[in-house]
UniProtKB/TrEMBL annotation:
Residues 68-107, 195-227, 249-269 are annotated as: Disordered. One of its GO terms (cellular component) is nucleus. InterPro entries: WRKY_dom, WRKY_dom_sf, WRKY_plant. It is found in: Nucleus. Keywords: DNA-binding, Nucleus, Transcription, Transcription regulation. This is WRKY domain-containing protein. It comes from Sorghum bicolor (Sorghum). Belongs to the WRKY group III family.
Length: 378
DNA sequence: TAAATTTGACCTAT
DNA sequence: ATAGGTCAAATTTA
């Protein structure tokens, strides 16, 4: 529902925003070319380009905020346009702005942190789904090429109520009916409390919730570095470099990043129930990648870590694994092992994760710092 | 009756 | 053109 006045006002701003974004895109592309053409040139070049890009994106963010303020409700958080009828949309009545809005929305979503987990249910015969204690709402199902089972699409139950953009995709393994590959995207910003008891939904058929908390990521990889918050990073002017791990064949870097600052994320977006129904599984069946995760995840958890429950397991995978699972390398971007911010205060678990950032622009020579370059947004 | 799921159409990216 | 992802009307469930 777009309110007339607001929408109009937003219209021109939107044009400006789009223009700025286009600029940013172009600048990023140029930066990428600079890199490609002259990989040995001095850092100043890149710094300058990065600064420009930063500036542009900062302006874009400002405009976006202005739009948001002018037309509240019309564009909620990550995505929300629940009521724009699509079927009836006069096929041609779409304005280019609408189209672009939609596109940018897609990209925004694409940029959300993404990680994968495997769940095992005790009984393959049941069409059970793993339950991690979070409340999800199924919004779609799709047959996937090459997969025996359809993939289920879920989003946080509180998506509209609390503008929580967390989503997940659940895919039953072709080979092991007890196993489910669950891909999470976006962190929970809602205030729902993760049910600690959640038993792997051995739960009969439907009902049951779903699962998956983005708990502690598998800090595999040996690398450990200080990972200041993104804002800090920006403040440092990209000085501090995150170690990026590239996947064979690729040379652009993806960097896990936190999308919009936890809107109102009070503290840790995720909580770890003292008794999670899952326990990390190192036995990721087929992938050698499992070899990467020697350090028992448990050692990273400050507190009681997941406990095994009726044979279920829960484990995180980093993109390399995903790669092995047949994902498109290009779609994976790279993995960035993020370090732990020692700051006890605002300890954000999400920074522990291996975010699988997916770059929209493969030319981007540096991490997609989605954050506005100017101070802490908000 | 409200909330959740199903399902086919629609949309975007590749 | 195709595959994957999302929407929303219809339907089912609580």
């Amino acid at each position: 529902m777009q309110d007339g006045a607001g929408a109009e006002a937003a219209g021109s701003s939107m044009q400006a925003l789009l223009a700025l974004l286009a600029d940013g895109e172009e600048q990023a592309r140029q930066l990428g070319e600079m890199m490609a053409d002259d990989p040995w040139s001095r850092a100043e070049h890149y710094r300058g380009a990065a600064r420009r890009l930063q500036c542009t994106l900062g302006k874009a963010a400002a405009v976006a905020r202005a739009i948001e303020a002018a037309a509240p409700g019309s564009s909620r958080g990550t995505d929300d346009r629940s009521d724009s009828p699509r079927s009836a949309d006069e096929s041609s009545g779409r304005t280019t702005t609408e189209v672009q809005e939609r596109q940018s929305m897609f990209k925004r979503r694409k940029g959300l942190p993404r990680w994968t987990a495997k769940f095992r249910v005790p009984d393959a015969s049941l069409d059970a789904t793993p339950d991690d204690g979070f409340s999800w709402r199924k919004y779609g199902q799709k047959d996937i090429l090459g997969a025996k089972f359809p993939r289920g699409y879920y989003r946080c139950t509180y998506r509209t109520a609390q503008a929580c953009g967390a989503t997940k995709q659940v895919q039953r393994s072709d080979t092991d009916l007890c196993v489910f590959d669950v891909t999470y995207q976006g962190e929970h910003t809602c205030h729902q409390k993760q049910r600690a008891s959640a038993t792997v939904a051995a739960a009969p058929a439907h009902g049951a919730g779903s699962q998956s908390p983005p708990p502690p990521p598998p800090l595999e990889q040996q690398q450990q570095q200080q990972d200041p918050s993104m804002m800090q990073l920006l403040r440092l002017g990209f000085k501090r470099v995150l170690k990026v791990e590239t996947t064979p064949g690729l040379h652009d870097h993806g960097i896990g990043h936190r999308d919009s600052g936890p809107a109102s994320a009070p503290a840790a977006p995720f909580s770890f129930p003292s008794a999670s129904p899952f326990h990390l599984a190192g036995e990721a069946t087929d992938n050698p990648a499992a070899a990467f995760s020697p350090p028992p995840a448990s050692s990273y958890f400050p507190a009681p870590h997941p406990v095994a429950v009726d044979g279920s397991f829960y484990d995180y995978e980093a993109s390399p694994v995903a790669l092995m699972r047949g994902a498109e390398p290009s779609e994976l971007g790279e993995v960035v092992t993020r370090a732990i911010t020692t700051g006890p205060a605002a300890f954000d678990y999400s920074s522990l994760f291996h975010h699988q950032a997916e770059l929209d622009d493969p030319h981007l020579p540096f991490p997609p710092f989605g954050g506005p370059p100017h101070g802490p947004y908000q």
